[in-house]
Design goal:
The protein is an alpha/beta fold and 273 residues long. The protein has two domains: 134 residues, NAD(P)-binding Rossmann-like Domain (Rossmann fold), CATH 3.40.50; 120 residues, Dihydrodipicolinate Reductase, domain 2. Helices cover 35% and strands 24% of the residues. Helix 2 links the parallel strand 2 and strand 3. The chain binds nicotinamide-adenine-dinucleotide. The site of nicotinamide-adenine-dinucleotide has 31 residues, from helix 1, helix 4 and helix 9.
């Protein structure tokens, strides 16, 4: 007997959305079906559809949520809360890549998931160590810090830079651009440090989690370091991520993490915390 396939809809047909669509086609076609795509830029959805043999429909956010069992947001912090809320109201499962967009009001979303029976998946993205942070948070965590190093083009366009009149073209050598709470980091760098939102939610929250953002024209990779201290002891992780060829702000590992999360959802065996 053929098992039922999970009906997947992807909102955001950019760097991560494209990789997810390809993975569904090449790796998960026996267990998942790419039913629908959505993008604010319809050409991007059309292009992804044209390159796929799965013939997904191009739908609005509401239509996509209506039709799919698993909704994947890979679009923007401006829309991730709305997507999660609408999906959960219909008891659908939802994977959110723009984790920064749900930091304000995540408690309501988590309660909605509980009430309606939908699940929220927040991939680790481009960082390592959330498995251990989750375990550590069962006891007391005293301190959690994310140190992000990105080349100037990986931070370009961030609202914080405009607000503080910081011109990255003139930067010479290693320079600390931002130091503060995760909540402020995600407001100032919504497209650059989604990982601090995931770290906050796994650990001690966006008020207590601290973030330092450093840049240098000499950086070739997006480097994320996590330092966590608590009753369990001390955790240090470091990923040296190559940027995606299509989008220097997004590390390749972030796309791979989204695909691995989808695999985890579909698999019977789940490895890791
Ligand atoms: N969790 C993480 O670690 C992590 C890592 C990298 C990127 N991200 C986030 O994931 C998201 C996707 O990243 P990406 O590299 O694929 O970005 P991208 O810019 O390559 O693609 C995003 C796509 O979403 C579309 N889009 C934007 N706003 C939309 C809206 N309101 N409705 C529908 N479509 C919309 C854009 O037109 C674009 O095609 C971004 O928000 C990014 O900041 C998260």
């Amino acid at each position: 007997m053929e098992s039922k396939k999970t009906k997947v809809g992807i909102i955001g047909c950019g760097t991560i959305g494209i990789q997810l669509a390809r993975a569904i086609e090449k790796r998960f076609c026996e267990r998942a079906e790419l039913l629908a795509l959505c993008d604010i830029d319809k050409d991007k959805a059309e292009r992804l559809k044209a390159g796929s043999s799965l013939n997904p429909e191009i739908l609005s956010i509401d239509e996509l949520i209506d039709r799919c069992g698993l909704v994947i947001e890979a679009a923007s912090v401006s829309v991730s809360y709305e997507v999660a809320q609408k999906a959960l109201e219909q008891s659908k499962d939802v994977m959110i890549m723009s984790v920064g967009g749900i930091l304000d009001g995540y408690e309501e979303l988590f309660a909605l998931a509980r009430a309606k029976g939908g699940r929220i998946y927040l991939p680790s993205g481009a960082i390592a160590g959330l498995d251990a942070v989750k375990a550590a948070s069962i006891a007391k965590i005293n301190k959690a810090t994310l140190i992000t190093r990105k080349p100037p083009q990986g931070l370009a366009g961030a609202p914080y830079l405009a607000e503080k009149n910081i011109d990255l073209t003139g930067i010479k050598g290693e320079t600390v651009i931002f130091e503060g709470r995760a909540r402020e980091a995600i407001k100032g760098f919504p497209k650059n440090v989604n990982v601090c939102a995931a770290l906050s939610l796994a650990g001690i929250g966006a008020e207590k989690t601290m973030v330092r953002i450093v840049t240098s024209p000499d950086y070739k990779a997006n480097i994320h370091e996590i330092e966590v201290e608590g009753e369990f002891g001390k955790l240090l992780t470091r990923t040296e991520n190559l940027p995606s060829p299509e989008n220097p702000r997004t590390s390749l590992l972030a796309s791979l993490s989204a695909i691995a999360t989808l695999k985890n959802i579909l698999d019977e065996v789940k490895i890791g915390t």
